[in-house]
Amino acid sequence: MVAGGGEVGFHLGQALLEAGHEVMILENDRRRAQFIQEQLGSVVMTASADEGRAQIEAGCQRADAVIAVTGDDAKNLVICQLAKDHCHAQRVIARVNNPKNEIVFKALGIDETISSTRVLMGVIEQELPTGGFFPLMPLTGSHLELIEAEIAPDTPAAGKKVGELGLSAYGALIGGVVRRGEILHAHGDTPLQAGDRVIVFTPTAAEADVRRSLFG
Amino acid sequence: MNIVIIGCGRVGAFLAGLLDEDGHAVTVVDLERVAFEHLPQSYKGNTLLGNGTDLDILRQAGIENAEALFALTQGDNRNLMGAQIAKEIFGVRRVIAKVNDPIRARLYRSQGLTTISRTTILGTLLHAMLAEDPVVGKTLMEKSLAHEERLSGGTPTPAKAGG
Questions:
Q1: Partner residue opposite B54 with nearest CB, options A75, A81, A98
Q2: Quick one: what percent of chain A has pLDDT higher than 90?
Q3: How far apart are CA A61 and CA B6, in angstroms?
Q4: How much is the CA Rg of chain A, to the nearest whole Å?
Q5: Among A27, A48, A142, A156, which is disulfide-ready with A5 (CB 3.0 to 4.6 Å)?
Q6: Looking at CA atoms only, how far is residue A80 from chain B in angstroms?
Q7: Domain B2-116 has CATH 3.40.50.720
Q8: What is the ipTM of this complex?
Q9: Torsion angle, CA of B35/B41/B42/B45, rounded to 10 degrees?
Q10: What is the pLDDT of residues A17-35, one digit of tens each?
C-alpha cells in the first residue's frame, strides 16, 4: 500500500507494479487519483490515508508493506502509526522530508524511514571529492550505516594500526581494507597505508567521530 | 508554570491569553506571523515564529523546561506529532492535543495520549444546553462567558441590537 499519489507515490507505484507487486495507492485528490488510474489502471483509491477507515478499505491488514510518501511529515507519521497500531500492518516505511525527523520517527515507533534529503546528500558526496569519505548506505532497520573512506597521506590514520584508531569507542568497526584492489582482513594490528580504502560499519550518530578519527 | 502552545489560531490564542493572565510563562508557536494577531492585547507572553513539530523550534520555545504543552494547530496530524514529541522525546508532563477527527482522537487516546476533539466537545455542550443540563450546559457556558469577558479587556459587552 502506497499512501500518497504525488510524484514519489506515482513513480514508486509504477515501479512496484513493473516489478510484479500488487499495489494500492491512496490519494485524496480526486483529479490526481483519476490521472493515476488512467496511467496505471485500477490500483488507486480516492481516500485520505491518514484515516483508519480508508486504510482498512484499502486492505492495509493484508499488505506486506505500507509506505507513506506524502510531502507532509506529520501526515506520514500518523499514516504509519495508524497502519502499525490500528491495522497491524506487517511493515511500515515512512518518507521523511525534514531529515531531523528520522530521529523523531524512530522515537515514536516508526523505525524504517527514508530521507530524500539524506539520499541526495549521499549521492552528491559520492560524486564530489569530499576528502575521500563516502557514506555508502544506511543499513535497513537499524541505526547503522556503511561508510567507505580512502586513507590519505598526512592524516592520523595513515601508518596507524586499525586497533589504534579507537573506532570501537564509538561502536564503529572496520569491516575490511581494500589495498590495490585486494581485500585484506582487518585485524586490530593491520597497519593502514595511504591509498587504502576502508569499509566502516558505524552508528549513524557517530559518523562525524569516525570521520575525525580517520582524517583528523 | 512554563507552558508551550503550538498553533496560534482562535483556540490557541484564547488559551494563551487565559494562561498568561493566570500568571504562567507562556510561549505560543505558529508558522504565520499574522496568527499572533489573534492574541488578546493584554498578552505579555512570548511568541515564536516556526514549525511546532520541529525539534529545534520546540527547544527554542523552551520545551525542555516546560511543564505543559498544548498542540492546537488546524492540522490533526501536526497536533498528534507535536504532542508525541513533547511527551515521548522531551518528557513534558502534561500534554494535550486537539484532534478534531473523533476516530483519530480515540485511537491515540487509547494509547495514552490526551486528545480532545472539538467536534465531540462542542457537540456534547450543545446537546447538554438543549437538555438544560445544570452542570455541563450551565456551568461550562457561564465559565466560558466569564473568560470571554475577561479577555475582552474589560470592555463592556455591546448592547443588544434593538434592545
A1: A98
A2: 46
A3: 34
A4: 21
A5: A27
A6: 11
A7: yes
A8: 0.84
A9: 30
A10: 999 999 999 999 999 999 9
Domain layout of chain B by residue ranges: 2-116, 118-153
Identity of the residue in B77, B89, B101 whose CB atom sits nearest the CB atom of A104? B89
pTM reported for the whole predicted model: 0.74
| A125 occurs within a structural domain | no
**Residue numbers of chain B with a pLDDT score lower than 50:** 159, 161-163
Give the three-class secondary structure for B133: coil
Final residue of a structural domain among A97, A118, A139: A118
What's the CATH code of the domain at A196? 3.30.70.1450
Closest Cα in chain B to A87? B107
B132 CB within 8 Å of a chain A CB: no
Range of the domain at A176: 130-215
Residue A144: φ, ψ to 5° = -110, 160
Beta strands, E only, B72-146: 94-98, 114-116
Q: Is residue A110 packed enough to be buried (19+ CB in 10 Å), middle (13-18) or exposed (0-12)?
A: buried
Q: What is the pLDDT of residues B49-67, one digit of tens each?
A: 999 999 999 999 999 999 9
Chain B residues whose CB is inside 8 A of the A82 CB are 104, 107
Tell me, yes or no, whether A33 lies in a domain: yes
Q: How far apart are CA B36 and CA B49, in angstroms?
A: 9
Size of interface A-B (CB pairs under 8 A): 54
